[in-house]
Structure formats: structure tokens, C-alpha cells
Write the C-alpha cells for this entry.
Amino acid sequence: MKKILVPCDFSDPAVQAFKMAVEIANQSNGEVVLLNVVELPVMHESVLMPTLSFEEAFIKDMKEHAEKNFAKMKEKWAKEGPKVTSFVEFGGTTTTIRDFVKDKKIDLILMGTHGASGVKEFFIGSNTEKIVRTAGVPVMAIKKQVKLTAVKNIVFPTTGNMNQEELTVQVKALQNFFKATLHILYVNTPSSFKRDMEIKPQLKAFAKRFMLKDYTLNVWNDFSEEEGLKNFVFETKADMVAMATHGRRGLNHLMSGSIAEDAVNHINCPIWTYKIS
């Protein structure tokens, strides 16, 4: 977590994300990159309001506004470190962030989110949810202020798949950074029910295969994986969830959804995600 991108719209969740990014960068000797993305309005040229003139004035005003807000944030929360750089880009939010991550070689996106619900969640989703689905680097989504020292228990939902080496290596690094206990979670559902005598040996083998340390093994019975994860996090008062996302898109995403995106929208603790193929 050396180069941390914080997409920033200056809302309270974005400010909380910046504060947490500063803490992480201080501990990892890293840097924070702030990015404000401005989506340009679609204008139609007229005699009274030439499009080009309006856009130039709009771009100038938005850039100046963002830079003033960036300066205030740096002064208030990063005056004594770490290194913080800031950028203003114009374009579609998700596409711009995705391209920016590649160009600047970002290795963690830390985003504040309000979440999404109802019709908006089903058809549109939050910007954070879209980034979770498409980003090529880990994404951490937070809704409220979180102190690094408060992250002591991380929930890691898994099926015990032995082929998830890349994901599990990343989760182990995350656990080590926070010096936290890892709670391995298998959610048992009616549609794919397994007996404890089947699941527990599988989870033990998983922990042994990846040489996990300071962990617990947990089987939780619920109506769905989404509900099981939410209820386990609530019951155990977990501080963070670390999980995979498959980055589904289009009709496949609408039909099958994503547990990671559901977690981002509905669980209040930080959600760390890593896209796997």
C-alpha cells in the first residue's frame, strides 16, 4: 500500500477516506494521490451561449474550486506528512479513475461511499460499486471515519478454493499490515448446503495450504451468502471485510449480482476487495 488513490468529491465519506489514506501512507511510507473527476455537462450551442465559451469557463471554475478544497484538506489532515499530490480530471467517473490507476501505477484505491439501495442499486449502483467491479487493483471502501488502530478483526469469506493463491496472498498482507485476527468464513445456504463434517476439514486444509496465522474458522448458516456475510459481520462486530469480486458486467451482473458489491452497499465497516478472473 505504497501509492494510494483517493477519488474525491469532497463529501464527508471522501474526506474520511483521505484521512484513513494518510494514516495508511504514514505507516507504509507511501504517498496519497487525490483525484477529483468532473463530468462535463452536455451542452447545445446557441447564439446566446456558445458551447466552447461556456465549457472553458466551467472547466476553469471547477478546477479552481477543486484545488482550493484540496489545499484545505492537505493543510488540515496531512500537514506533517505523507506526500500528497492532487489532480483534477474531466470525463466519466469510472472510466477516468480506471485509466488514472494504470497511468499513475496506483496499488490501492481507497474510496468513501454513501452506498446505494433499491432501484438505484439494481440498475445503476454507486460509483464505488462500479470501481469495485472493474478496478485492476485492490479497492477499500469506507462509509465513516475509521482509525487504523481500530482494525483488529478482519472477516475473509471463502469457499475454501485451493486455487485462490493470488487473493489469499493479498489478504495475508492486509492482515499483517493491520496486525489483525483473520476470521475465515464459510456461509452455508439451503441451495448448496454442506454438513459441518464436510466444511470444517476443507477450511482447515485451506488454512494449512496457505500457512495462515492468527485466524479462526467459522461456518455460518443463512438464507443467502449476502445475508450470511452481513449477519456474521454484525454478530461478531468485525472491523473489516476482505473478499474477492469477479467483476461481472452487463446482463450477467444484473442476473447474478455480486456479493462484494452488496457488501459495499450494505455493510458499514470497511470493505476491501480484490478482483479475480
